[in-house]
Amino acid sequence: VKICMGGVVPLAGVISGGAVSGTWSGGTGTFAPDDKTATAIYTPSKAEETAGKVILKFTTNDPPGPCPAVEDTMSISIDQLPVAIAKAPPYICAGAPIQLNGKVLGAATEGTWSGGDGAYCKNYMDLNAVYTPAPKEIAAGKVTLILTTNATGLCPIAKDTVTIIIH
Known about the structure:
The protein is mainly β and about 170 residues long. It is built from 2 helices and 16 strands. The strands form 5 sheets. Strands 1-7-6-3 form a 4-stranded mixed sheet. A 4-stranded mixed sheet has the order 9-16-15-12. About 25% of the residues are buried.
């Protein structure tokens, strides 16, 4: 199972044969309502989110008769939340291009620049694109650009903005 940091995992333990109960174990997170509910909801701990994984085990009780208790494991992979960091010089002279310096972290692998009426040299999908402000942005004395991460699995996109003053 794969989730995003901050997510929860609905569990689906199955009890059959002579077994009448089961218990979840492993992990340092929490089971709701408890670890004895086959269909509990598991919330990973901060340590598990940092590690990016956790393995849980569901074990049935030992029923009467010749059949032993049985167990099964479940692996949970936890993606880090995407992070966008939009950087550029805080100000430029009118007519000068703006060297953008974007970063994406966490589960994000790509970023896209948007905003403004000017032109992106290279490509708006280049984290280090060069932006040339439009005449109306120069007249307004500023431009605000947005860096947006790509969506990754179940994790949401992330955005960051940067405003550049044009002298």
